[in-house]
Amino acid sequence: MNQDREPLPSRVEGLPALPAEALLALDEGLRTLGLADLPDPLRTGLIDHLRLLLAWNQSINLTSIRDPESAVREHILDSLSALPILRERRIDSILDLGSGGGFPGIPLALVLPARRTLLVESVGKKAAFLSAAAALLAERAGGGPGEIDVFAGRAETLAADGRHRERWPAVLARAIAPLATLAEIALPLVARGGVLIAWKRRPFDAELAAAGPSLSLLGGAPPVLRSVPIAGLEDHVIVVVEKLASTPAAYPRDPAQRRRRALAAGDRLPSP
C-alpha cells in the first residue's frame, strides 16, 4: 500500500470540468424530464457530484462508466427518471440501498428536494465517498437538499432497528440484486403505503415472474413498470412495488442463509 498517496478530494475546485458534450446531454435530458427550469444551484450540485465521483473513481472503483457524457445519461438522468413517482406520492424522505457512487439517491435528494435522505452502503471506501459528496453538496447546493446521511453497513442491520424498519416512504435500489432478493432486503424497510423503486433493464420477464410469490409474502403489491424516457436508455425500466402489508418478522434472513435457500429453492421465499 502506498502510504504517501495524496488524499482523495473533498472539494471540486481544481477538478476537471465536465466537457461540453456532457453538459449538453445533461441539459437535453433535463428538458426531456420537464426540468428545464431547474435552479442553477441544483444543476451545479448534480455536476459537482459527478465531478467528484469521476475524480475518486481514478483511485476507487465507484463506477465502470468513465466517460462523462455516458455518466450523465446513465447515472444522473436515469436516477432522475424516478422523480415523477416520488412527486406523485408526495414523498420527501428516501433511503437509497447499495448507494455506491450516490445514484439514484443524491440526484433525487437534490432535485426532489428531499427533507431526509439515507444512503446505505456496506463497502467502506464507497461509504467514505458518499460522506464526502454529502458534505460537499450541503455546502454548495444552495440549500436544495435537506439532511443527507450515510449508513456504512448492511440493510439487514437497519431492518432490525425499530427506527428504520417499516419507517421509510420510499426505498430505492439500482442494479444490486434480482428482484426477489431485493424485495427481501428492501421491503422490511418500507412503510405500509410506501414504495420500493427498483431500476432494471429489459428483458427481465423471467426475473419479474420469479419475484411474484416473494413480493406477496413480504407485503408487496404486484409490480408496476414505468419506462425511462431518456434517449439511449430505452431498455431501462423502473419497477414500483407498493407496500400493502407488514413484512413478516422473519425477514430479511441472514445473508448466508438467504443464499443457501435461494440455491435450493430457486430464489423463492419459504413461509416464516
Write a structural description.
The protein is α/β, with parallel strands linked by helices and 272 residues long. The protein has a domain at 80-265: Vaccinia Virus protein VP39 (Rossmann fold, 3-Layer(aba) Sandwich). It is built from 10 helices and 7 strands. The protein has helices at 20-32, 40-56, 68-80, 83-88, 105-111, 124-140, 155-159, 179-186, 205-217, 255-265; strands spanning 93-97, 116-120, 147-151, 168-174, 190-201, 224-227, 236-242. Strands 3-2-1-4-5-7-6 form a 7-stranded mixed β-sheet, sandwiched between helices. It is globular, with a radius of gyration of 18 Å.
CATH class call of the domain at 80-265: Alpha Beta
Overall pLDDT confidence: 93
Count of runs of 4 or more consecutive helical residues: 10
Q: Biggest sheet: strands, sense, closure?
A: 7 strands, mixed
CATH architecture of the domain at 80-265: 3-Layer(aba) Sandwich
Give me the side-by-side strand order of the main sheet: 3-2-1-4-5-7-6
The number of distinct β-strands equals 7
Structural class: alpha/beta
CATH superfamily of the domain at 80-265: Vaccinia Virus protein VP39
The first-to-last residue Cα distance is 46 Å
| Broad shape | globular
